[in-house]
Design goal:
With 278 residues, this protein is mainly beta. The protein is built from 6 helices and 16 strands. A hairpin with a 2-residue loop joins strand 8 and strand 9. The protein binds zinc ion.
């Protein structure tokens, strides 16, 4: 993961990926670019800083800026209300009839974290990949929602980590790891204990981490096509939701909720989409 600072005040080329930058001061000028233009190389996140202090239109998780109104906040968010294949969804269990090979080839590297204003986010470690049935995607970033967004046959979970990947064609694969309260996770600790005090800024923590240690041992999963679960709600995102949760401790969850009590989009209609259990 290479961060390139280009100029002086915050605009993130990969707004939808990093979810950094959300200002209520100026809603008119900045349009969220389509994903292909956001990043040309998945291992190369360009944090482009421009002299203007505006960025993407302000959005949040409650009140007038909450999920029910995202689609009205800005024309670039219209997919949030008009889209027909939105995320998250309720994933209903069906007995798998086949398997799909999925390999998380994540590498250890420096842990860089941001409090984006919407979630806690860690940048992907260099060289980290996921391979799904032979298709390879680079890990761009991971971020945390509380509670989890996807539900499993109606069951909700305390939190979830979304791992955002992108392939050479610009397609997004988001994998989700569900979290339940239980035994503490040391890597989760590294993240929640190194959150920068300044918001919307990626800062190095000074420690190394391996995102692999945030994955469950079993990789059975749901596979479906949906969207980014936050503005601009871009569709065509492939979701791999692992159905085995990891655990973090009660204290770790409390610390997470100290940052974000509820940064979770409600369940969206399935609209006839196919979800495959593997
Ligand atoms: Zn997410």
């Amino acid at each position: 993961m290479k961060l390139r600072i280009v100029d002086t005040a915050i605009i993130v080329t990969a707004t939808a990926f990093l979810t950094i930058g959300c200002s209520s001061s100026d809603k008119s000028e900045e349009k969220a670019p389509p994903p292909k233009k956001m990043m040309d190389k998945s291992s190369d996140v360009t944090v482009k800083v421009v002299k203007k202090t505006h960025d993407t239109p302000h959005w949040g998780y409650d009140g007038l800026f909450g999920p029910a109104l995202w689609g009205n906040l800005d024309p670039s968010f219209s997919t949030c209300k008009d889209g027909k294949s939105q995320s998250p969804i309720d994933l209903v269990y069906k007995k798998p009839t086949s398997t799909q090979k999925i390999e998380f080839l994540y590498e250890e590297g420096p842990l860089a974290i941001a409090d984006t204003g919407h979630n806690l986010l860690a940048t992907g470690t260099k060289g980290s990949l996921v391979s799904v049935a032979g298709d390879t995607y680079n890990l761009v970033q991971l971020h945390i929602h509380s509670p989890a967004e996807h539900t499993l046959s109606g069951k909700s979970f305390d939190a979830a980590i979304h791992f955002l990947h992108k392939n050479s064609a610009g397609q997004i694969l988001m994998s989700s790891v569900l979290i339940n309260e239980g035994t503490a996770n040391p890597v989760f600790d590294q993240i929640i204990k190194n959150v920068p005090t300044t918001k919307k800024k990626v800062e190095k923590s000074g420690v190394n981490f391996n995102p692999k240690n945030l994955l469950p041992a079993i990789h059975t999963h749901y596979d479906y096509v949906g969207s980014l679960s936050h503005p601009p709600c871009t569709e065509g995102v492939r979701w791999i939701v692992l159905n085995t949760p990891i655990t973090v401790s009660k204290e770790q969850l409390a610390k997470l909720k100290g940052y974000y009590q509820n940064n979770s989009r409600p369940i969206q209609p399935l609209n006839g989409r196919t979800v495959t259990n593997y």
